[in-house]
Amino acid sequence: MPFLGQDWRSPGWRWIKTEDGWKRCESFSPELEDENSQLNNNISHAVILTDDDEEIYRTEDCEFAAKKRKKDHFRNNTKSQCFYREKWIYVHKESTRERHGYCTLGEAFNRLDFSSAIQDIRRFNYVVKLLQLIAKSQLTSLSGAAQKNYFNILDKIVRKVLEDQHNPRLIKDLLQDLSSTLCILIRGVGKSVLVGNINIWICRLETILTWQQQLKNLQMNKQVNNGLTLSDLPLHMLNNILYRFSDGWDIITLGQVTPTLYMLSEDRQLWKKLCQYHFAEKQFCRHLILSEKGHIDWKLMYFALQKCYPIKEQYGDTLHFCRHCSILFWKDYHLALLLKDTGHPCTANDPDTCFMPVSPQHFIDLFKF
Where is this gene product found (predicted)? Predict the structure, then answer.
């Protein structure tokens, strides 16, 4: 008979074989104890407010619940989650004579090596966007193990951003969407929309609020460099750099560095090219915005159109799907060049013709039944 853990979709407890028989492996360490002790102190004064200023968790009820939540959070600590090191997974949506069962979003999220992918600068934005889409609509479809994996990877992302100070805006948007979703789901806990104890989810929500505060207080370190700087480049090179950006917020952020970059970032032709790259002409006609001089304000047009239509996504590297093998995989370009490794055990005569890049939304759509 299979062992069922506290979460029926979780792998359950970890067991080790000893001379006296099988014993349960307790994931205890001083670091985890200190973390839970600190969490317990923070919990006793926590109040979570919804958008309507509705109190979900009241201070006067904390004393008993804090002990319960500490226990649940310790047993379900995300740091005890194990990761797969595979870079490919077979995607099958129905049972066949050769294969039984089907692949779920949670299984794919667990099996593919997202933990290592966030360390690759080419894949970082891709993984963050995928986590954001899952937070918006697919969080409840993940299994208990996949949810632990999700928050563990999110913890690594936040730590990475706090250390290297790269892409804080992307993580702020992700945490904002995730906290909004969790507030809605916690209100609907009576409908059994969450896997696991409600105390665990409240702890996770409080952790998200702590991350948001840490990112809000993040101070960018001033780079000390006696060599060539961005301001030393000629105007045509700076202008060329701005034209390489595909995100309007990146252009605005760079324009705040120096007065010269601000002048270049306000160029009408720059914003016109950006609008033409992301949107069709029919969409322009529906949202024309004119300036005081009667000219089209392409900058305002871009942000107005962005609210109504999706923009094109650009990533340094993505997951790939092999149409011949029905396999989803990370393609290692270095191995592909040196060893002619396709990234998965492909049986096609010409594997490269069978590969197609998978956007974050396409990744989620692959597992919709």
Answer: Nucleus
Task: Give the separation between CA 337 and CA 331, rounded to whole angstroms.
Answer: 11
* Residues forming a β-bridge with 16: 23
Mean of per-residue pLDDT scores for the chain: 76
Would you call 21 helix, strand, or coil by DSSP?
Answer: strand
Per-state percent for the chain, helix, strand, coil, to nearest 5 = 55, 10, 40
What is the rounded distance in angstroms from the CA atom of residue 348 to the CA atom of residue 90? 15
Q: Which residue has the tokens 């492909």?
A: 346
End-to-end CA distance of the chain: 29
The pLDDT-based confidence of 154 (bands split at 50, 70, 90) is very high
Q: Rg of the chain over CA atoms, in angstroms?
A: 24
Tokens 């936040």 belong to residue: 158
CA 151/CA 208 separation, integer angstroms: 10
For 28, 29, 37, 172, 302, the CA distances from 34, given in Å and listed in that order, are 11, 9, 5, 27, 48
pLDDT tops 50 at residue 243: yes
Phi, psi angles (nearest 5°) of residue 254:
-65, -35
Between CA 86 and CA 100 the distance in angstroms is 21
**Under a CB-based contact definition with an 8 Å cutoff, are residues 205 and 48 in contact?**
yes
In this predicted structure, what is the pLDDT of residue 339? 45
Residue 47 — φ and ψ, nearest 5°? -135, 125
Is 0.85 topped by the overall pTM? no
Amino acid at the residue 251: I
Q: CA 255 to CA 272: how far, in whole Å?
A: 17
Phi and psi based region of residue 92 (left: phi greater than 0; alpha: psi -120 to 50; beta: remaining): beta
Q: How many residues does the chain have?
A: 369
